[in-house]
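Entry for the shared binder. Reason: the reviewer on the internal report wants the predicted structure included alongside the sequence.
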Amino acid sequence: MPWLVCEDRVIASLEIARVGKDRRRGLRGRDDITGALLIERCRSVHTIGMRFDIDIAYLDGGRRVLDIVTMPPGRIGRPRPRARSVVEARAGAFERWGVAIGEVLDVRLGA
């Protein structure tokens, strides 16, 4: 199982959306997420069809956090041209995990 890591701290379990179908679906239709979802090759997100508020961290090519926003269901976010991927989690998660703009998020594969 992959883990989301921030500054050498494991902060959450991680799902990775690599293929088009999974990237387009994101968290739509789910009732909750306990960890986080990494969507690769992504510069903008929407929450149409979502059932809960989410935090979005926009990451550059080195996975440095460029911006963090919270979006309620039914919204369309504005693109972040420098973003190369996003991490989505339940609203409030990044604050609880201590994730801030400028930090680097990494993926650690579990055994």
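Summary line for the report: The mean pLDDT is 90.
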